[in-house]
Amino acid sequence: MQNTVEVSGKVHWIGTNDRRTHLFENMWPLEHGVSYNSYIINDEKVALVDTVEIGTASEYLDNIKSIIGDKKIDYVIINHMEPDHSGALGAIIHRFPDVKLIGNIKTLKILTAYFTINEENYITVNDGDELDLGYHKLKFVMTPWVHWPETMVTYDTTDKILFSCDAFGTFGSLDGGIFDDEINFEFYEEEMRRYYSNIVGKYSNMVQKAFKKLDGIPVNTICSSHGPIWRENPGRVLDLYNKWSKYETERGVVIVWGSMYGNTEKMADIIARHLVNNGIKNIKMYDASKTHISYIIRDIWKYKGLILGSCAYNSAMYPKMAQLCAELEHMQVKEHHLGIFGSYSWNGGGVKNLMKFAENIEFELIAEPAEIKGSPSEGNLDQLEVIAKEMAKRLKEDFPTQS
Ligand SMILES: Cc1cc2nc3c(=O)[nH]c(=O)nc-3n(C[C@H](O)[C@H](O)[C@H](O)COP(=O)(O)O)c2cc1C
Ligand SMILES: [Fe+2]
Ligand SMILES: [Fe+2]
Question: I need a surface site. Which of 67, 136, 166, 369 has the fewest CB within 10 A?
């Protein structure tokens, strides 16, 4: 018995779970694993929608066999060339040498840079082109930069299934539950936001373009490339993606600091207490040395308030904070209220460089930075309170109905 699940009639999930890899893209922690979702449509013509990462190819081939037996695969639809989806392509071509590969013109250029293929077996599709499998009729929609330039999605007009590739994908393996009505949504929502903010978020304007393109198309089921299949309530994840790609945030504050000996951390605690005294309940606090930036960025994508602290370190920002700031700039995070603080002993450097970051990323500073020589103590705490009060005031104005 192989690990495959029927999605609808002829459509089956034949993906794999990866609970061994520590870091996705060798960068993002996979505490709870990840799934590489591939789908097979066992129609008059047999089509695969994407494949899996190469490390799980052997199990994947078994999954295929358990559905089609000795039948052959007619088509592989390549929605995206990133190796978490194209990794097993070589194994598929090896087993089914006549298989037709379907992608767009940009896919072909990337494909031939990594695989030796017979180009006569490549079918180039354009936006809106259709493929008839017998019962199922598929339509291809180009969604460039959600996540790579060649990325496209495949829409099954028969059962109204959107094979959305990375869009609506989550970290987290599929632990028995495959469909949204079988899982704990809150867990996957957090992991979806971590995936979105760190992997796709940089291209939010292209996500919005994709939304406009797909607007009005009826979708019963979303089959993404990572994480659960959204069949009970696909509208829920469509709404989340729409919100995140419009940089819409909520009432709350993320406080992150870099601190060697705890003085900057103490400042963070004082600010947090003042925020609470001023009516803010959602406060997420992170030591930049301890928590991987992917979790911090996940929460920064959620809350409008951001307060960053750094001790001075060799006339610069504390390196872990510098790394976070560089990543925030790289991901082009937008539209946050920013507060800054930090401790120093002689010429400073932390706060000065946080101010440079604020300028680069074009976040509005809500108040003068709080820079304290040595430890926070009676007599130098005022500015910490000013930052908290200003932040609370703006958040209450922005989100009058939220708590
Ligand atoms: C390796 C190292 C480098 C430092 N570099 C600077 C510096 O360039 N400028 C400065 O004003 N203080 C510098 N300091 C002093 C710290 O910024 C200061 O002790 C601060 O209070 C530490 O805050 P923390 O307790 O949050 O780590 C340095 C300290 C260390 C250990
Ligand atoms: Fe990707
Ligand atoms: Fe992916």
Answer: 67
